[in-house]
Each structure stands twice: as structure tokens, then as C-alpha cells.
Amino acid sequence: MGPARVSRPAGMPPGGERRSPPQDESPLQVIGQLAGGIAHDFNNILGVIINYARFAQGAIPPGSPAAADIEEIRRAAERGVGLVRQLMILARREGGSTVVFDLNELITGLDGFLRSTIGEHIAVERRLDPGLWPLAEDPARIEQVLINLAVNARDAMPGGGALTFETGNAELGAAETAAYPGAEPGRFVRLLVSDTGVGMDGEVAARAFEPMFTTKAAGQGTGLGLATVYTIVTQAGGLVDLSSQPGRGTSIEIHLPASRNAPAASTRPTRAAPAGRGEAVLIAEDDEAVRRVAERILETAGYRISSCPGGVEALELLDDPANGFDLLLADVVMPGMRGDDLA
Ligand SMILES: Nc1ncnc2c1ncn2[C@@H]1O[C@H](COP(=O)(O)OP(=O)(O)OP(=O)(O)O)[C@@H](O)[C@H]1O
Ligand SMILES: [Mg+2]
């Protein structure tokens, strides 16, 4: 039996009838709308958990059993942040900023993440075309694609194996893009992410891009990884193909429209956290727990902090010249007055 090949989420069922792509499925839209409504609060809560976990980690000896427990708390909260981000992408709420960048650089920049998340038992190989055309996209979204594929590959290779990233340029004609809604013929950047893992049978492969389809145990997988990949790539005017065979591994091939512009100098500048020298900062934030976290971080970094719960209070403090603030840090959505109006 040859490998299963799937180029659309629900693919073509054997009858030849076409099913609609995942973002049109109404349960997903409902989830997206719900998530959109609570994402801001939810991210605040997770941010508070992550930051207090960090404070606690800094206050106890690294080797102690509590340090490991706190690390688990932090990781779980970070998984929550990742989940909200995926839901936002699926709900198309993520704005994102478009930058001209080099995909190779993004892949190379993932090194630290791969080492910590993928594990030593998996060899990571890169075959990156040095003359690669640039992309004009939100790098954070493309990074999400790389991460989701890498994590899937890891899960498919519990006993170890090889994860390969390959890039190259490709010109696709009308015949090649015809089957992909939203893709126009032209110049594409090709990305191939392959693993030597357990692979998928035809049934799993046909459903792999479906939102909330997972073969993983509860708590191990949400089934949003490939749905998010599909959404990001098709919204970018690209193509996704999956090829897999049980016991032989999986390859995900992605084509993203190339940009004719030259990439910006560097996608990710490496900056050291700036240290304050007693500058006066006013924090306006209605969520008390978030406000306290911000105060603590900035105080530790060497700033003088005043804070208040809203824009109206902030204006009063700003009006008093005795305060002499150097910087205002304001939440955008607050009762009474928006942070951007305040600024
Ligand atoms: N590289 C792979 N090798 C084998 N099976 C895969 C691979 N990638 C995806 N799958 C299969 O497709 C299913 C859906 O993948 P998807 O990434 O969408 O969700 P998940 O990994 O189960 O959960 P999540 O990504 O939300 O944590 C997986 O549960 C798995 O059965
Ligand atoms: Mg996944």
C-alpha cells in the first residue's frame, strides 16, 4: 500500500465528494467566538500564574522538590497560553504584523526551543536553501506552524528518530494550484517537515487537519495543531500537503507565496532585558493581579513604580507635576477610559 496523501483537511472522501475546509465548521467558529471573548482575561490569569511561578522559582533553592513542582505549574500555564493563541488564530482574531523575512532564519532561530522541547533522542536535520526567497508574513504565525509540526513529529517518535526541515524555492503553475482554494500560481517558498515516526494510516491522515481530531490521550493533545497549520497557511495564500505511511514516518509539505521584497535586517533581535535606573513609571491596569505582577517585575528591574486601576485615576496622577513620570504603562481595555486614549 502506498503512502496516504492528503491535501485538504477533510480531504476527498472515497466517494469523491468534497467536504468544506475546517474554518467553515460551525463548532469551531463558536469556540473561536467564545475564546475571543475571554482570551484577554484568560491570558491575564495565565500571565499572573506564570509570573508568580517565576518569582517563587527565584526564591527557592533550584534543586528542591518544590522547584520541580513550580516548574510544572509554569509549564502547564504556558501550555494554556499556547492553546489560547491557537484558538485566536483559528477564530481569525489574531491581527499580527507582516514582515519580510527569511524562513531559514526562523528555522535556525528555533534551535533553543527544539533542544528543550524535542529532546536528545531526536536528531534535528536542516537542509536549508541559502538562496531562499523571502516571505512577507507574520513571523509569529509561521513560527507557530513550525512549532506545531515539530511537536507532532516529537510525539510520533517516542523511541527517537530524525526530524528534518527542508526549504527551497518553487514556481507553481495554474495546474498545481488549481486544487487549493485561495492559492494563486506564482513563486513559492517550499517547506518540508518530515519525521521518521509512527506515521498515519489512511483514516487518520484523512482527518488529521480536522479541528479537534486527535488520537492522543486526554490532556496530551487537543487536536488543534494541524488545523492551526492549515488555517495559517491557507490564510497566507499557501498550500499544505500531507504524506504519511504507518511505520514509515510523515512529511508535511507547505508552499507559502514568496515576497519580491528584500528581507528586513534580522527577524529576531537579541536584546538583553533593559535595566532601570530609578525612572518613574506609572502603571494603569484594571486587573489588580496583573497590576501587582507588573509592579513587582519593574520594581525588581530598578524602576520606581506608581500604579492605579484606571485611566481617570492615571490622568490625575499625570496632571500632578510633582510626580514627574518618565513612562506610562497602560492596559488598552479598561473601564472608564481606554489606555490608548489616555496615552
Ligand atoms: N507527524 C505525525 N506523525 C504521526 N501522526 C501525526 C503526526 N502529526 C499529526 N498526527 C496525527 O494527527 C492528529 C492530529 O494532529 P494535531 O496536531 O492536529 O493534534 P494533536 O497533536 O493530537 O493535538 P495538539 O496539536 O492540539 O496538541 C494527531 O493526534 C495524530 O494522530
Ligand atoms: Mg499536534
Summarize the structure.
By secondary structure, this protein is an alpha/beta fold. It is built from eleven helices and eleven strands. About 40% of the residues lie in helices and about 20% in strands.
Characterise the protein shown here.
The chain has 343 residues and is an alpha/beta fold. The chain is built from 11 helices and 11 strands. The protein has a 6-stranded mixed sheet. Strand 9, helix 9 and strand 10 (304-308) form a beta-alpha-beta unit. The structure holds adenosine-5'-triphosphate and magnesium ion.
List the helices and strands and how they pair.
Layout: E1 4-6, H1 26-59, H2 65-90, E2 99-101, H3 103-109, H4 111-117, E3 122-127, E4 135-137, H5 139-156, E5 161-172, H6 174-177, E6 186-195, H7 202-207, H8 225-235, E7 239-245, E8 249-257, E9 280-284, H9 288-300, E10 304-308, H10 311-319, E11 327-330, H11 339-342
Parallel strand pairs: 3-5, 9-10, 9-11
Antiparallel strand pairs: 1-7, 2-4, 5-6, 6-8, 7-8
Helix pairs in contact: 1-2, 2-8, 5-8
The protein binds adenosine-5'-triphosphate and magnesium ion.
Number of domains: 3
Please state how the strands of the largest beta sheet are arranged side by side.
Answer: 1-7-8-6-5-3
Q: Cα-atom Rg, whole angstroms?
A: 23 Å
User: How many helices?
Assistant: 11
CATH class assignment of the largest domain: Alpha Beta
CATH topology of the largest domain: Heat Shock Protein 90
Can you tell me the CATH superfamily of the largest domain? Histidine kinase-like ATPase, C-terminal domain
User: Per the principal axes of the C-alpha atoms, what is the gross shape?
Assistant: globular
Mean pLDDT: 86
